[in-house]
């Protein structure tokens, strides 16, 4: 009954009693379900322990599991309070900078480096769903399967809009084509409106240590809802 009550927090069908989904017990229950969802993981042509590579985080859509995301201590400032210490705990940054990239040639770096290319060395994940857990009605918005969001390690993912779907019982492949843009220090002489970009030292955010458009919009949304409604999103 407790599992059904937890499901009711996401399926507003008016059947079960309301659940306090801000309780730590609720998210501990979801975190314990991770091994059952991530059935098999392979990276750089080697099988990996899924729970060591995927970090549980809270998003606007609920609990997600992120690969290569920065640890909360490297992403957020000290004024951000975390009520769930077991969430968003990843490997600390090592030999990497958001503007300069990887600062050394060591293989042991975080975020993890793409040491080889091609499907053989890519990240492969097998996701498992029990038949009784599959929903095709209003609970899943008539969309059954998983959502995959590709984001930069220092960017908090927005899974409400930017994602591609992985239906149940199907194989889906994603191709990432990186585009590197280098900026010289001389660009700083121009006004941000002229160059249409900011350096990290020029645009500090209140909650995030690293500036990005997505992080900025998320912070603006939190400030706006706090001002108008007196509250912010649970994530």
Feature tags:
7 helices, 3-stranded antiparallel β-sheet, Acid-sensing ion channels like fold, disordered N terminus, 16% strand, ligand-gated sodium channel activity, globular, membrane, 235 residues, transport, 21% helix, two-stranded antiparallel ribbon, ion transport, ENaC_CS, alpha+beta
Structural summary, described in words:
With 235 residues, this protein is α+β, with helices and mostly antiparallel strands. The protein has a domain at 33-178: Acid-sensing ion channels like fold, CATH 2.60.470. The chain is 21% helix and 16% strand. It has 7 helices and 9 strands; from the N terminus they run αααββαββαβββββαα. The protein has helices at residues 2-8, 24-32, 34-37, 50-53, 72-75, 192-195, 213-229, and strands at residues 38-43, 46-48, 54-59, 62-67, 96-97, 101-102, 124-127, 145-148, 164-167. The strands form 4 sheets. A 3-stranded antiparallel beta sheet has the order 2-1-7. Strands 3-4 form a two-stranded antiparallel ribbon. The chain has a two-stranded antiparallel sheet with strand order 5-6. β3 (54-59) and β4 (62-67) form a beta hairpin. The two termini are 25 Å apart.
């Amino acid at each position: 009954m407790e599992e059904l009550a937890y499901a009711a927090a996401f399926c507003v069908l008016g059947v079960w009693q309301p659940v306090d989904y801000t309780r730590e017990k609720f998210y501990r229950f979801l975190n314990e379900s991770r091994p059952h969802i991530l059935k098999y993981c392979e990276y750089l042509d080697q099988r990996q322990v899924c729970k060591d590579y995927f970090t549980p985080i809270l998003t606007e859509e609920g609990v997600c599991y992120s690969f290569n995301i920065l640890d909360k201590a490297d992403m957020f400032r000290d004024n951000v309070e975390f009520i769930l210490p077991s969430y968003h705990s990843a490997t600390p940054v090592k030999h990497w900078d958001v503007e300069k990239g990887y600062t050394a040639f060591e293989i042991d770096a975080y975020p993890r480096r793409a040491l080889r290319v091609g499907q053989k060395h890519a990240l492969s994940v097998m996701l498992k769903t029990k038949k009784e857990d599959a929903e095709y009605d209003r609970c899943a918005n008539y969309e059954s399967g998983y959502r995959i969001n590709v984001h930069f390690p220092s960017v908090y993912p927005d899974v409400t809009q930017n994602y591609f779907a992985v239906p149940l019982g199907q194989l889906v492949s994603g191709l990432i084509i990186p585009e590197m843009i280098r900026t010289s220090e001389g660009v700083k002489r121009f006004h941000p409106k002229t160059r249409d970009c900011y350096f990290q030292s020029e645009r500090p955010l209140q909650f995030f240590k690293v500036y990005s458009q997505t992080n900025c919009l998320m912070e603006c949304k939190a400030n706006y809802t706090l001002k108008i409604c007196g509250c912010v999103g649970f994530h």
